[in-house]
Amino acid sequence: MNSLIFKRVKTKTTLSYNNFDKYLFLLIAVGPVLAGYILFGLFPNILTLFYSFTRWDGISPKIFVGLENYINILKDINMWTSLYHNLIILIFVPVVTIIFSLFLAYALVNKGFKENKFYKVLFFFPNILPAIVITLLWSFIYDGEFGLLNAVLKLIGIDMQSFYWLADEKIAIFAVMVPMIWVQTGFYVVIFANAMMSIPKSLYELARLEGASHFKQMFQITIPLIWGVIKVAIIFTAVGTIKSFEYIFMLTNGGPYDSTNVIGLYMFNMAFARNISHQYGYASAVGMFLFVVLVGINYIIDRLFSKEQSQF
């Protein structure tokens, strides 16, 4: 009887030590990351939500105004214009990026180039460049006097003279998309290529024996088998595109005449621009509106590309 009681006590003690070790490991492994998220992620978002209900210029005392900032958003034509530009970028950048990345990755994997590893590094190279370097590079490319784009067009017989691509109201919004596509394409080429390499080669060999072209192989074998990766890429590209503003900020700062202004840049200028009075409360409300837009876009994409609808 005593030995049985001793065994039970020993078992409980061992379990308590095991639980202690488990919780200690979780504290050491997850604790710093969780603390960083709470301090630099969750807490600033809670403050932003609080500021969105105030009128505050960063210096004078905060004045609680309730839903006034959100009501002003509904009346703000500049904000809706910025959202319209976001939607244009949202339509073009992810679509072009995913299509280019898929075709380039398919060519790398299925054409069997000897220089595949070099091409992957070459495609991925723009991702290691800082945004300021990329924007400076494309500013020189788009320059009207000494730009590479005008020089290349002139070589093939199209003389644009001293046309400044970033200074035209109708073209500037499309011009700022090109660096975004250029940077993201290389990243997703590597992702898609690695996903395609996991597909059994026997499927392609069987398809070739049946006379299937590369076009059919891609749409009947490759895309269905890596659809999960493509879906995640679409979500990441769309969300990253709609909340990014650094390229537009450094290339055009929303100009000319607000033709390239987006919500993120509009929010930034409302809070930090030197030529206007700082409106941190209103900028915070715009930030919360952007958060709702991002959640909505994520939900829509997830519904459009649900498992039931993604069967080929």
Q: Please, could you describe this protein's structure?
A:
The chain is mostly helical. It has two domains: 2-51; 68-304, MetI-like fold, CATH 1.10.3720. The protein contains 14 helices and two strands. It has helices at residues 2-51, 68-75, 77-110, 116-124, 131-142, 148-155, 172-175, 177-196, 201-209, 214-225, 227-243, 246-251, 263-272, 280-304, and strands at residues 54-55, 63-64. The chain has a two-stranded antiparallel ribbon with strand order 1-2. It starts with a helix and ends in an 8-residue tail after the last helix.
Residue share in β-strands = under 5%
| Percentage of residues in helical conformation | over 70%
Strand order of the largest sheet: 1-2
Number of domain units: 2
Largest sheet: 2 strands, antiparallel
Helical stretch count? 14
Principal-axes shape call: globular
Which class do the helix and strand fractions yield? mainly alpha
Summarize this entry quickly.
With 312 residues, this protein is mainly alpha-helical.
Q: Any key phrases for this structure?
A:
MetI-like fold; globular; mainly alpha; two-stranded antiparallel sheet; disordered C terminus; 312 residues
How are the elements arranged and paired?
Layout: H1 2-51, E1 54-55, E2 63-64, H2 68-75, H3 77-110, H4 116-124, H5 131-142, H6 148-155, H7 172-175, H8 177-196, H9 201-209, H10 214-225, H11 227-243, H12 246-251, H13 263-272, H14 280-304
Antiparallel strand pairs: 1-2
